[in-house]
Amino acid sequence: MQVLLLVLTFASTTLVGGCHYLSFEQAFQEMPAMGAQESRDWLAGIFSQPSFYLNGLWYSLTVLGILGCHEMGHYVACLRYGVDATRPYFLPAPLPLTGTLGAFIRIRSRIPSKVALFDIGIAGPIAGFVVAVPALVAGLALSEVVELPADQTDLVSLGEPLLFRFAAWLIFGDVPDGYSINMHPMAFASWFGLLATALNLFPVAQLDGGHISYAVLGRRSIWVTLAMVLVAVGLASFSASWIAWTVMILLMLFIVGPRHPPTLDDYTPLDSTRLWLALFALFMLVVCFTPAPIEPFVTGGG
Questions:
Q1: pTM of this structure
Q2: Residue 289 main-chain phi, psi, to 5 deg
Q3: How far is CA 88 from the centre of its chain?
Q4: Cross-strand bridge partners of residue 92
Q5: Could you point out which of 64, 175, 218, 287 has its C-alpha 20 to 30 Å from the C-alpha of 272?
Q6: 3-class DSSP assignment, residue 103
């Protein structure tokens, strides 16, 4: 099953990646008006070209690398502590921006201790982060700053996490008004990887951040979970792009409950090194987070 899902996700992300590359080459320019038959003929010609799928690999291999390393971080940590876990399940999806809903592993046995829980929880975000950062720098280096069209209604604006903004500033400096970064597909895959890292690090119930929070705070972590639910609801009211994520969090809490399940040893405290790593996890959440991931882009002309 895992192999089949990986193949399907590779196919869906490569298809989406090919579309991202076409958009990158178009550089915000509006498509010429075409009739229905002309549009079908144009699409058929695009999809029949091997270069379309080869160019799609920029996105698909990058995003699968980030997601795969994230989940393998969890899996290897599970092996270290003798925890029964599956290999990663990738989730293909007909989504025009991502082509995937991410990936996950199933843990099928109790976690032996809070130390093991912490290591399993943080290993994934760190592994994905280590891949996403150099991919972000490389992807931005392949991108370009271009002038925005005077008036176009079909553009979307991607919220820029602090890490993205810092890397873009190092490469491009201050982007003047009326211009924007035309993101290479590798840069977009890295942006999605940063967003996925932030989502997983939300300290809620059984997300990665919830594992870390429980390992550090024990049963008091439920108050962090409840506070983050309020934060998620606030984000959904601020940006519609958070609505789906907030609904998923609420469904998860309804199904599994807000309390994190205890480990077999809830009494052995974390050492100082792991407490510092917990602060690093908070740092990753902050620099990968954006309050408005996807919004309509308003250009000039009204």
A1: 0.91
A2: -85, 145
A3: 16
A4: 100
A5: 287
A6: strand
Paired residues of 91 in beta bridges: 102
Max distance between CA atoms of the chain, in angstroms, equals 68
Helix, strand, coil shares of the chain, percent, nearest 5, are 65, 10, 30
pLDDT at 48: 76
Extract the tokens encoding 162.
């602090």
How many residues does this entry show for the chain? 302
Which pLDDT band holds residue 300 (cuts at 50, 70, 90)?
very low
Closest by Cα among 111, 9, 113 to 65: 9
Q: How many CA atoms lie within 13 A of 23 on its CB side?
A: 21
Q: Which two tokens stand for residue 18?
A: 């090919």
Beta bridge partners of 117: none
- Type of residue at 40: R
Q: Are 196 and 32 in contact (CB under 8 A)?
A: no
* Residues facing residue 145 across a β-bridge: 181
Which of 27-36, 70-79, 230-239, 287-296 has the least mean pLDDT?
A: 27-36
Distance CA 64, CA 12 (A): 11
If one counts every other C-beta atom within 10 angstroms of the C-beta of residue 70, the result is 30
Question: Whole-angstrom Cα distance, residue 149 to residue 180?
Answer: 10
- Is residue 111 within 8 Å of 264, Cβ to Cβ? yes
Which tokens is 181 given? 């970064």
Q: Print burial letters for 20-43: b (CB count within 10 Å at least 16), e (below 16).
A: bbeebeeebeeeeeeeeeeeeeee
Q: For residues 75 and 88, give the distance between their C-alpha atoms in angstroms, rounded to a whole number.
A: 8
- What is the average pLDDT across 81-85? 95
pLDDT at 80 over 60: yes
CB 193 within 8 Å of CB 133: no
Stretch 146-158: mean pLDDT, rounded? 73
Q: What is the pLDDT of residues 172-228, one digit of tens each?
A: 999 888 888 999 999 999 999 999 999 999 999 889 999 999 999 999 999 999 999
